[in-house]
Every structure is written in structure tokens, then in C-alpha cells.
TrEMBL record:
Its EC number is 1.5.3.1. This is Sarcosine oxidase, gamma subunit. The keyword Secreted does not apply. It comes from Methylorubrum extorquens (strain ATCC 14718 / DSM 1338 / JCM 2805 / NCIMB 9133 / AM1) (Methylobacterium extorquens). Pfam families: SoxG (PF04268). Keywords: Oxidoreductase. SUPFAM superfamilies: Folate-binding domain (SSF103025).
Amino acid sequence: MSEAMTSLWQPRGAWEGTARIGRHGAAAGPAGIRLSLREGFGLATLIATEGKEADLQTALADRFGPSLPDAGTALFEGETGLVWSAPGQWLAVAPSPRDLRDWPEALRGVASVTDQSDSRALVRISGAQARAMLAKGVAIDLHPRAFGPGRAAVTSIAHIGVQLWQRDAGPTYDLAVARSFAGSFWRWLEHAAAEFGYEVEAADQRRSK
């Protein structure tokens, strides 16, 4: 196989060719937004078998540690956690896809586990103006009284479905979007962040599958 053909099969990050690393937008003063690309993470949808949610909770606690978050919330220990997605459904997040490899077999009979690691694009949004920027697009109330650390939502931005959860009071948010919409979403993100000045940070290249 030629070198040109081989190169076509090299893994590509979800934001590769879309996000430009560095400082952009308003140049005066410190950047109000930081966009940290999140590559190489393990993601999986977790859907409880009907009538087995309590058994799922027990199985998770015994084998993996994470607890099932209530509706509209996310629970994390470091970079590992679960994000509520819908009744009986959660998004599992782990530092690497290999961290979720044992879940399908371990949770057999109590939940279906579907790998989503290559189907979603993740970005971390932080900085003094992160809330103001996101408020331009999301159809939910991001005021700290309504949406603070540990809160999660399934919503849309620029007619693109997104899953959003707040990591801390900084505020820092993590956001997941279908990989096929990553380019369109990033164009909205650039326009929304430009007035505040924003920095784009590269993904940690040491992370691997």
C-alpha cells in the first residue's frame, strides 16, 4: 500500500482541521474564554434494563465506583464519571476508551453499554466569560442559582444537539457534540467567543487508546 493511501487511515482528532490553536478574537486584555480540546477520552452510552436500575447502581458501585447521577446532574471523580442523558440513560466518561472496555460484560443483564468514543467531540469551556458566551446559544438558564457545578443538560446550540455539564464554579463546562457536527459547532463557538478574546489549547497528545 502506498504511503499516500496509508496516511488516509491515520486516526484524526475530532477537532483536527477545524480548531486553530492559539489566541483569537479581541486582542485587548486577558482572554475571557479558554477552549481546551478534549481528545482520546472514553465515552459510552449506558441504558438501564427496564426494572434493573437499582441492580445497575449496585453493579457500578461494586465494580467501577461511579454512582448513577440524578436527572439533570453529573457525578465525577477526577476525569471519570457519569452524566445524566435521559430517564434511565447516562453518558459514561473516562480518561481513555480502555477504561470502559470491561463495562459491557460486567453490566450484562442490567444495562446496555455502547461505545461512543469516536462519535462525539469534546471541548472544555472555561474563563471569566464562559457563562456569558454559552448564554448566547443554549436554551437553558445558566445563572448559578439554576445551573451550577454538577448540573447537566441535553440541549441545543445553533440547532445542533449538545450535552453540557458544569465541572466547577469557575465556571468550567464540558460539552459533547456529535462528531459529524463538530465543524459547524466550532464555527458558532468562534463567533460567540470572539468579542471576549479566546485561547484554544491543544489536546493532551500523551493520551492514547
